[in-house]
Q: What sequence folds into this?
């Protein structure tokens, strides 16, 4: 089953980047539960995947004055020992931004977990994100069209940089378009992008304090809902629209702003959420108003897998930054699910049925197919295998950045190397074998006689006189007048041959046979 944990609430979710077991959920704006409660709360849950309980235990909660439009969990700023779990930032529906200390929420000490409240915007804050390079930088964008950059190095007294004015403000438009999403570039620290309801995506340069490029599809007047930067290519980003007339995901390259590079076609209604996998950069999640949550292969634009559909559509998806393959989904039917992408292999069609109490349930009918390819975290980084003759074969895979000479684009490529080595466990046996093979290689009498003499000397030094005499007799076979030498000692030949046989039983079979053949060959010449 794809679902591992589930919460019964309509909330937007953020995972802790410093602990794999913590997840924050804030009551989402624009949704009412069955109790018609208008309260808003920020909750922190503990995810124990070893436990069989579906509902994760609540670690702590705090009341919030307004409901959440967006939530983000950032790393702790520098020199912040009192923030072991970082900072939680929430963009609220009243235009304010709140910062919380998650450690104060979970420890149960009773300390006020809220760090500050920043009432800057005049509309719902739909874009909030921390900078991955500088955790003290927080970007926010709202319905008033303003884009703000905050410095939260001192969370109790954050400082605000001058607000960024978009192309509409520069053109003299009194009411700038609403900002629906913002995202920091994953490669360049000072680059930021925002999507707007007029269908444009604006890329900002914080060093110049102005927009540097505006992307807009000339073939459609669709409004943009969400964007994601490519973690590998600094100039690429994927933009989606919640307009049912244009439900595709478009990948843009800033080096060619005239039209998108590729499109991901699969959804039949507007896209509400996207998330790029931090462990495998070829996987991209998207959820739409057609009740489908799809995992895409960015390189081929194919569907890798799909989450079984629910009664209502998911409005947000988030990958876990610490646990590979784990992601969350938030739906308007009051469900927050934590799922495993390896179990999202359903290829059937969703069928909705109505029960006797007029409640609906959705089941997936069809065959189950495995993933088309293994994710990066399941691939073998290295391997080893023994072969014949003491040979050991090993391989190592490692990613490498390769620049295309035609386009100048840098992309990651998995490269590997194979090595074959000789493993020696008994060095003395190898030395004896090599010396024997060198002695018989050229059928040289002097080399064979010298070999026998050295063996006889070694056996004599060890106190094995019988073995020494046998090696001495074998050395006689390789004399120039071996037949005469043997003939003068006919009485001892039989006894020595028997000794040779007895000693040969303790010798390797190949060595004994070769010596007998060599000796007989010398006697017959």
A:
């Amino acid at each position: 089953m794809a679902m591992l944990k589930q919460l019964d609430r309509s909330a937007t979710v953020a995972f802790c980047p410093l602990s794999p077991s913590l997840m924050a959920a804030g009551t989402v704006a624009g949704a009412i539960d069955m109790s018609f409660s208008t309260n808003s709360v920020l909750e922190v849950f503990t995810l124990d995947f070893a436990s069989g309980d579906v509902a994760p235990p609540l670690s702590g909660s705090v009341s919030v004055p307004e409901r959440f439009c967006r939530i983000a969990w950032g790393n702790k700023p520098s020199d912040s020992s009192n923030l072991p779990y970082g900072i939680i930032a929430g963009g609220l529906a009243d235009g304010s931004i709140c910062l919380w200390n998650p450690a104060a929420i979970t420890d149960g000490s009773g300390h006020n977990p809220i760090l500050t409240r920043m009432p800057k915007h005049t509309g719902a804050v739909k874009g909030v994100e921390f900078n991955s390079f500088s955790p003290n930088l927080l970007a926010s964008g709202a319905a008033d069209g303003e884009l703000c950059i905050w410095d939260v190095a001192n969370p109790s007294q954050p400082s605000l940089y001058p607000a960024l004015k978009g192309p509409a403000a520069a053109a003299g438009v009194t009411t700038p378009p609403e900002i629906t999403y913002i995202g920091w570039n994953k490669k360049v620290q000072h680059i930021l992008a925002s999507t707007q309801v007029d269908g444009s995506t604006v890329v900002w340069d914080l060093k110049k304090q102005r927009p540097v490029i505006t992307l807009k599809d000339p073939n459609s007047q669709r409004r943009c809902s969400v964007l994601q930067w490519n973690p590998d290519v600094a100039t690429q980003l994927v933009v989606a629209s919640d307009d049912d007339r244009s439900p595709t995901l478009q990948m843009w390259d800033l080096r060619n702003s005239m039209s998108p590079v590729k499109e991901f076609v699969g959804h039949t209604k507007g896209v509400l959420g996207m998330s790029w996998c931090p462990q495998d950069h070829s996987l991209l999640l998207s959820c739409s108003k057609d009740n489908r949550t799809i995992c895409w292969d960015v390189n081929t634009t194919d569907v890798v897998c799909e989450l079984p559909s629910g009664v209502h559509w998911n409005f947000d998806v988030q990958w876990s930054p610490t646990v590979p393959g784990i992601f969350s989904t938030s739906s308007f039917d009051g469900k927050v699910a934590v799922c495993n992408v390896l179990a999202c292999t359903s290829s059937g069609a969703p069928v909705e049925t109505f029960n006797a109490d007029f409640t609906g349930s959705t089941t997936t009918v069809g065959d189950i197919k495995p993933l088309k390819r293994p994710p990066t975290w399941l691939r073998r980084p290295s391997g080893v295998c023994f072969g014949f003759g003491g040979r050991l074969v090993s391989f190592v895979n490692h990613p490498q950045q390769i620049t295309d000479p035609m386009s100048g684009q840098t992309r990651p490529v998995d490269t590997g190397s194979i090595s074959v080595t000789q493993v020696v466990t008994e060095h003395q046996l190898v030395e004896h074998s090599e010396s024997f093979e060198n002695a018989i290689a050229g059928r040289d009498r002097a080399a064979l006689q010298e070999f026998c003499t050295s063996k006889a000397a070694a056996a004599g030094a060890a106190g094995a006189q019988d073995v020494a005499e046998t090696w001495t007799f074998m050395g006689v076979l390789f004399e120039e007048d071996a037949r005469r030498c043997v003939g003068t000692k006919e009485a001892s030949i039989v006894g020595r041959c028997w000794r040779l046989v007895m000693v040969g039983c303790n010798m390797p079979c190949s060595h004994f046979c070769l010596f007998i053949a060599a000796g007989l060959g010398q006697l017959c010449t």
In short: Residues 489-495, 500-506, 520-525 have pLDDT under 50 and may be disordered. The longest strand covers residues 391-403.
